[in-house]
Amino acid sequence: MPAIETxxxxxxxxxxxxxxxxxxxxxxxxxxxxxxxxxxxxxTTIGLLTGQREPDAGSARVLGxxxxxxxxxxxxxxxxxxxxxxxxxxxxxxxxxxxxxxxRDLDDIDDRIGEWAERLEFTAALDTVAADLSExxxxxxxxxxxxxxDPELVFIDEPLVNLDPILQERVKEELRAYxxxxxxxxxxxxxxxxxxxxxxxxxxxxxxxxxxxxxATDLSNDALLDYFVETVDSGEVATVRGSTGSAVGTDGRPxxxxxxxxxxx
Amino acid sequence: xxxxxxRLHTQLFGGRRFGAFPLAVFGLAAVGLPLLSDLGVGRGxxxxxxxxxxxxLGLQVxxxxxxxxxxxxxxxxxxxxLVSSYRTLPIxxxxxxxxxxxxDLLYYTGLILGPLAIxxxxxxxxxxTALSDVLLLWVTLAGAFTLGVTVSLAMVAVGTRSRLALLAxxxxxxxxxxxxxxxxxxxxPAAFYGAPSLLSGIRVxxxxxxxxxxxxxxxxxxxxxxxxxxxxxxxxxxxxxAGRTLRExxxxxxxxxxxxxxxxxxxxxxGWLLVVVADAAGLEIAHGIAFxxxxxxxxxxxxAWVTQFDMPGEYHRYPLAPTRLLxxxxxxxxxxxxxxxxxxxxxxxxxFPAQDLLIGVLILPAVAVYVFGVSALLAGLSPTAxxxxxxxxxxxxxxxxxxxxxxxxxxxxxxxxxGIAPPLAxxxxxxxxxxxxxxxxxxxxxxxTRTRG
Lengths: 265, 453
Fold this sequence. Notes:
Chain A contains eight helices and eleven strands. Chain A is α/β, with parallel strands linked by helices.
């Protein structure tokens, strides 16, 4: 069973179609990157997959759970790092993570806080109120809240924003180790180099439409950038209708030999 | 800034609903002013009450300096207001703040006091009194609003520099009011309305100028990253929703004292009303029922504080059922509102018989729970919607009146029916409390649907 499976997922805000007919499959144990320009629908996709928003059409399964009918179950099973959001200003990281532990019913939250503070290097800031932390420290706390309950799957939206280069490398290592342990990462970014460095598969989202997906393990930064620009410029759209729900490339053929039936629209 | 303010409100509440707000104010005033007159309430009492209400509104508007950018972001999402452009443009903070305050004055005197004045003008034409009286009322009400804003900003300005200095100022003011014969009311815009003269004008201008100068000289924007490390009091309140909420209120500007301050204003208004009504009607009022009811209603300000720092979208990230979220909020609400309300009730014992007030200890928490339930059902975690969304404002008014009117009537007739009125009041309040818990539970899923989008 894939970690994520969607079929014709569509979301409209008034007259604006933020996401159109998204059909996608993300295998367990993979690091999938959803790559797209600003406003392409990446954050909306995460919102729909985690039950934070309701689709206007289509369906989705996340770890086998329907996020529309069981949003709390999905959010209990996954971790979410939102884009551009800080920990609550008047709480310390320790207090905020204890709050997260409380709503996630974690008994050993203090041990987990210590572990993640050490891994992401904010132990010294654990008892400083968040309003007094630097942007980078806040981002580390937000990363910790996404991982603190050891989820099988995390949705992370621009995870390296505000981090210095050394810490960026540390976080990348954490993500690779997390994936290597059999977990799944759904990464949303508009930074091609981040996707090239981390992802073993990428999907290109533009104007609310999935243009294509492809294997990215063998792609250099420049090659992925060329692929990204060509895909967006071509305006092609890849959709998948098939028993496996596997994604397809821009040429309309399944990349992994599955029985998926692909159509360009 | 005026354009920005308009778009901000219309985006928050919907253009038509917000646009209808001045019409709602006009309608309320057009019905309420003649009705009060027909009930025998004197013009002086009505005008005095209006000045108190408008000054209170000014105090509330001015407390935006208390909450700062973090709370603004919580309410409005990621956004930048023109007032923040001092960071990037060659324009001083004080000039921007002055423009910001001026814009608020124009905005509120136009959208709220304007329709009120028009309704009063209609009344004046019908009963044949001078329109100049209406104009004078509009001017002095604008003065009361301005005084509220500048006093509030000045208190925040002093408080951010030194909490000790703020306590000293409040203490001196309290000693002046309660310990001396100094006539503070002569320095309020209401006094100018009562007896307009040059001397009265100078007296009324003095506190405006002083508070305005203090506010603009000492006020500093609360900006993340610019302030010194915040003191973090350890609170033994658990780490769930209630504990988090209590920490946020306690550590934000004004701490838990802002809850007490808001309820104190309600307490003062209640006390003043009781004295006025008792004098005018010669009734033997049940002070405890009246105080318990009106302070309970006043806890809608506490609801605003316990939801001030919430970004509804954040809670959608956790496996947190909306019912559990709102129960946590209710706990925090009660932990703040009940002790604060009881302190005000205790203070009322300085002026009214303590034995009469005791029943308020039972009525206040029950009415507060009802107010919580109604607020949660109608506004979710965005209680500012109650202020400018006409439909919700009307529903909130009707729902609170459904409980407040019978209780206030019982407080007025308790002297005549001493055996029936008090237990009946307790029964109504208890029932309201139960209803409050039930609708708060129902509010959760409703709020979830509305914010999930």
